[in-house]
Every structure is written in C-alpha cells, then in structure tokens.
Design brief:
Elements (H helix, E strand, L loop, with lengths): L8 H26 L3 H9 L6 H7 L23 H13 L11 H25 L18
Helix pairs in contact: 1-2, 1-5
C-alpha cells in the first residue's frame, strides 16, 4: 500500500497509521485468497513482491488469466495491449452491455474495511478541528510587535 502526505509530525503520523491499517487489511485479504498466513503475506508485501500472470495464478491471487499470448515489449510506461487482447475486450463489451462485477466480502473483511474508513474519517476530522482551532493563528497572518511587521 502506498500513499502520500504532507504536514507536520502529527499529519505524517496519522497517515502512517492509516497506511499501516490498510496494509494489514490487504494482508488479511491476500492471506485468505492465497491460503497463506498473514505473516507470510506481510513478508511478501514488505519485499514488494511482483507476480506475472502465471505466478499470480499459481500463488492463488487470480482465478484465471485472460490473455495467454506473450505481451509486446515496448519502450514505454504505458500499457500496450496486443490486437488480440483488444479484440477480446471489444467482444466481451459487445456481448455483455450490462456487465457487472461480483465481489464477495466476508463479514470480517467488511468490518476491517469499515474500521479503516472510520479511522480515516476520524483523522480528517481531527486535522480539520486542529486547523480551525481558535487557539491557532491563521496561516500567513501578520503580527505587529513594536511597529515591526
């Protein structure tokens, strides 16, 4: 899990806590999907483990590989799909105008997601209240002391 933050030590601490909680939630979901322990999955996540399609299927992260053909290699950061892949996507879109995605989330995962959202909302509220406190001077406010700005 990756995020960005700016601010003082409190802001960065809040963001670090939220990021850690999200990572733990993802680790729980990956562990269940991969049939591994949470500690094993955290080690993979900490090492920033990357999988190709075949490795992801073998690890249990995906159920099937859509396109078995070898991707074209290009000198670009953009994703380039083969003509075959584009044709398959177009065919899928034409055949299923009202496509849906079913995602099953068990009660423990839902509770974990709910808690993460509640924590993030609480952190944003706390930051808002701290930034709008009457005890705190306004940003860029000038004060005069003895005639000096």
């Amino acid at each position: 899990m990756q995020s960005g933050a700016q601010g003082d030590y409190r802001d960065l601490g809040n963001e670090a806590g939220a990021s850690k909680n999200l990572s733990e939630g993802f680790a729980e979901m990956y562990a269940q999907k991969m049939n591994k322990s949470i500690d094993e999955v955290k080690e993979l996540m900490d090492a920033t483990t990357w999988y190709n399609a075949k490795q992801a299927k073998e690890a249990g992260l995906v159920d099937e590989i859509m396109f078995e053909s070898t991707p074209m290699m290009v000198a670009s950061d953009d994703l380039l799909l083969s003509d075959e892949a584009v044709s398959k996507i177009n065919a899928l879109m034409q055949n299923d105008k009202e496509s849906t995605m079913n995602i099953e989330i068990n009660p423990e995962q839902m509770e974990s997601i709910k808690n993460l959202i509640d924590e993030k909302i609480a952190a944003v509220k706390a930051e808002f209240e701290a930034n709008n406190s009457a005890d705190k001077p306004l940003k860029n406010q000038l004060f005069k002391f003895g005639g000096i700005k």
